[in-house]
Amino acid sequence: MVAEDIIIKPLLTEKGYDGIADKKYTFIVAKSANKTQIKLAVEKLFNVSVEKVNTVNCKGKLKRMGRSSGYTPDYKKAIVQLTADSKAIEYFNSLS
Asked: C or N: which end of the chain has fewer Cβ atoms within 10 Å?
């Protein structure tokens, strides 16, 4: 798997914004990716050093439109903690 295939997009939520000060960043990642692959992908794409990675498998929610219903897609979320001496990710700094 290539690093660009592992990291799908950043996840921007209120809780995610609170972690930016502590160098914690949240991404939506490929479901088949493990913690080691996620760590290497973030280090390669953003030129930072990663301390640890936490992952969560999120189930899709039930959504209805009239009498028809369906589920939003399942996804995997990764919370990446950078080391203290690592530089911050510029993309997230421009948002806060």
From this structure: C
